[in-house]
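[job 0417] fold request received: Stage 0 sporulation protein A homolog
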Amino acid sequence: MARILAVDDEPAILTLIRRALEKEGHRVTVCQNADEVKEEYLNQYDLIILDVMMPGTDGITFCRNIRSKVDCPILFLTARTDETSIMYGLGSGGDDYITKPFGIGELRARVQAHLRRENREKKHAVMIAGVRFDLAGKQAETDGMRIPLTKSEYEISEFLAVNHGHVFSKEQIFERVFGYDRESDVSAITEHVKNIRAKFSKAGIEPIETVWGIGYKWK
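[job 0417] inference complete; emitting structure tokens
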């Protein structure tokens, strides 16, 4: 059982989310406005679902405001599929997005995939190409400097690093990291890789190589 917060200005969407996830045994708290969320309770949630377009504080702004205070996966609900929206959402600290309209099966599968990632047991650290991966704490660092990766950015980095030298398509990365096969969402991988590269470049490292026409690999 997980504790989940869903924020959306459409009551019908919140009802759908609550019914679908409570049938899976989860406890679901819903709010119609991000400004109604009590930040002192944010740490009690195992996963947060945010609508992007809401009156008042929008989902992306809210995610950016709370990201330093919460460590759980954040999923966006969006009717907008243009790359700019995806870039801003993932760049603000979001882990994934679900495009409206969505089905109950897709919602449950996506939520479960992220919760499984949170519950995996990892008990050691590895050093790969100058980057130390703390597999328990899900953190990456180089020369003692922590790279501020989001959970999804870390998972992608770890997957590519552990399999360094091998080339993976965006579809393969999405399925292996997120545990959910959906071709239309692989654009999320492109944006995550951009963010990963930007963060590692500040430490003087360029770990991910693009293999044109195929995908990405860890150098």
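[job 0417] notes: The first strand starts at residue 3 and ends at 7. The longest helix spans residues 104-119.
[job 0417] exit 0
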